[in-house]
């Protein structure tokens, strides 16, 4: 996203406030009318800017969508880090990892903001923010496993990389907004059951 | 599907051969041209039957799609049962369960027959065949866990229902064609890693 932001910043005035205003208005607009079937013209008309003015700040509709998506994913990551910091043990961190991703993902993409199709596009089209989010989740999984192994909470027979990859696979249906969408009603409970299974798999 | 078949059978001549011919031709047709964006008229024209004649046997395009989907899922279930029968232990059955679903699902819906959007519709719209398939997989998971617990291969502290529900959740991304589609390239390896994690979670 850093690269993306730099590119976009060179396109228009260095007024971040206007960029932020457009993003906030676009988020509101896409929540109501969807992302896939609307155009930059529709958006411009609705927020009272000219299409040309919006194009001074963003190269395409997707670029606006990517910023919105990145903001949502950053929000989820921040909630996750706050929850992990408060967890006293690696076992507790695993529980929080599954629970926070399920709850925050459901809320941010589906209940509060209803950015369904931004979430879907980001995952389906591997937007940079989505790829970066995946990478950061893999890092988080690895860090929790390392801490748990060091503290003697988790087994050490299985190669660390193998365990980390498998735990991430179990987590993915909750972390990927596209997959999360198919289990919104049960995501919270699914998260508890999956975390419990993963914790049993990590027993020394 | 039994109910569905009865309904359809009462609509037209009791000639199952013609039904089967239509299904076979439709499978071929949808593999090439997709399911969502084609009509019964398109299909009729392509196979040289009148639209009215096809409607003697099937109430709607979806009804044809459901039979095709049911056939695919039956095929997967048969492959799965054959693989499970050959597995000497419950642990081996868990491995086969994950592996067979991943491989057979990829082949039947995506590589050999390319019935992507029938698979997607069946899962998204909860077609009877898809629901029945899910139920039968839950039963298979439960049976393997019971056998493994009786044989002393699996732990017995966790309530059986809880373990079964969690194992099914881990299996779901491979069993659900809609979710499988997003990981076709890695499904085989994902299946091994997930099965290994599940087996570790079941250790006594």
TrEMBL record, chains A, B:
<dbReference type="InterPro" id="IPR001647">
    <property type="entry name" value="HTH_TetR"/>
</dbReference>
<dbReference type="InterPro" id="IPR036271">
    <property type="entry name" value="Tet_transcr_reg_TetR-rel_C_sf"/>
</dbReference>
<dbReference type="Pfam" id="PF17935">
    <property type="entry name" value="TetR_C_27"/>
</dbReference>
<feature type="DNA-binding region" description="H-T-H motif">
    <location>
        <begin position="39"/>
        <end position="58"/>
    </location>
</feature>
<keyword id="KW-0805">Transcription regulation</keyword>
<feature type="domain" description="HTH tetR-type">
    <location>
        <begin position="16"/>
        <end position="76"/>
    </location>
</feature>
<protein>
    <submittedName>
        <fullName>TetR/AcrR family transcriptional regulator</fullName>
    </submittedName>
</protein>
<keyword id="KW-0238">DNA-binding</keyword>
<dbReference type="InterPro" id="IPR009057">
    <property type="entry name" value="Homeodomain-like_sf"/>
</dbReference>
<keyword id="KW-0804">Transcription</keyword>
<dbReference type="InterPro" id="IPR050109">
    <property type="entry name" value="HTH-type_TetR-like_transc_reg"/>
</dbReference>
<dbReference type="InterPro" id="IPR041478">
    <property type="entry name" value="TetR_C_27"/>
</dbReference>
<dbReference type="Pfam" id="PF00440">
    <property type="entry name" value="TetR_N"/>
</dbReference>
